[in-house]
Write a structure and sequence with these properties.
150 residues
Length: 150
Amino acid sequence: MNAEVFFSYSHKDEDLRDQLAKHLSSLRRQGIISTWYDREIQAGAERTQEIQNRFNSAQIILLLVSADFLDSDYCYNVELKQAMKRHENGDVQVIPIILRPVDWQNTPFSKLQTLPKDGKPITSWNNRDEAFLEVTQGIRHVSVPGSIQA
């Protein structure tokens, strides 16, 4: 069975979310994960209910962290708070992905291990593909316990 992955992100980071989704395609094709984000809501569907349903059924929630994410009332006050509550209840694995440099060290998720390692923002890497590879390997490791990381 694959792990359902929910992307929590600011729409201003959509390009970076798209790049991450491409890098995760190998995990999707292998049936390790399925991914979902709000741009996949079908015409006529009730947005809020669809987001809530997908959020609640996810086994992994990726927080795509940037200044825009932290500035978004919806991302911070709704999704982040609910994600941390589900994490504390043991219902979900929450993984902060640091997209761009921002002061995140005193946020509710600062106690969690981030990707890429050491919280180095993806946009700070000389080769972003290497950063996305590290993130993909980290998600594989969480999705398939006991998997070997390169």
